[in-house]
Specification:
about 35% helix
Length: about 400
Amino acid sequence: MTELSVELANLEDSYLNQVQYALTFASESVEGYCIDRDAKSVRLRLRPGADQEEVSARVRQLLGRFESGEFGFKSVVHMDRRRELPKRDTWAELLDRRWVTQVGEGQVILRGPAAELARVIDHKVESEFVREFQAEHEIYPPTINCRTLDRCGHFTSFPEHVDFVAHLRPDLEHLRSFAERCRERGWQPDHHEGKMHVVELAISPSCCYHCYEGMSEWRLPPPGRCVTATLSCHRYEGANHQSLARLRSFTMREVIWVGQPAFVLAARARAEELIQRWAGDWELSCTFETANDMFFTDDFAVKASFQRQQEAKRELRADLPFEGQSLSLFSSNFHSATFGKAFHIQVSERPATSGCIGWGYERWVYAVFCQFGCDWRQWPDGLRRDWDAAGGRLW
């Protein structure tokens, strides 16, 4: 195994969080990495035959995106309920109990108490958020048109995420050849080389994009509308697919507002009150703070700093004691008129503003088991009350 060490600019958490996420995309030759705080460096494991100089240059180029001190990251903590927690290897225990089964890179099956807990979380969202905002239910397809992602700016901000969808060309000879090769040797990636149709779709990386796409050219009556949807989303995140913390395929639930600025901002503020109360009821060790998306672009610092300065993104982050880090369970986002302009949605003769809140269900499941263990009798009273209210099965 070949190792490469690259010096880090600093050891601030805001810097390291960006670095650790992005390093997996520096080069296909990077097999893994770890941060060495004592040496103030990152140690990378390279695949056999890797060109060390080329990898080193790419890593340094990537790190340079996050080293600019011109912009800085404003961090505002609105709630801090952190406490000491026992360290458990929860991922190993969930796999051992077969409550979670890994079926591919970043893809899992939840069953038993893990699946029940996801249902309880959904019941909580329905009873306390959907009802509060009288959100209309919508059902979205799992795939999304690439032109829609382009209008949303996804390709220029998060190109690393995208899982494209394609099909074989509607040509008898191509179909016959593909089927025959599979019959002879089983499926192999090279069987469909040169036989694929033009890519027009991707698996949706976010829930709210479909909402804006579906309202294209609408003229809304004031103050606006609120919708909710649940979608199985996809984001490719390379070596970051670890445990339930970052999945390639995950369940996202959103509540979305589109309308006048005062309407959107007031609803967002109320939702943030509710999520902080929820965190307190379940006794989660967590913070609620400003955040930024992991933009994978050369102008990362500009975009990230803008989000933080405007507090356009806030997150509920739960502690994962065994991993020694925190995980975003819930995000609150204000988009201003970005999507109203992109999809020509108007209210009161002006581009509509939008905002959304979102839950990652598998992340919530993981955080609960990480903090409270796999024995429901040791769980906080508030969590157990919500479990009973949702009709959750005990084990």
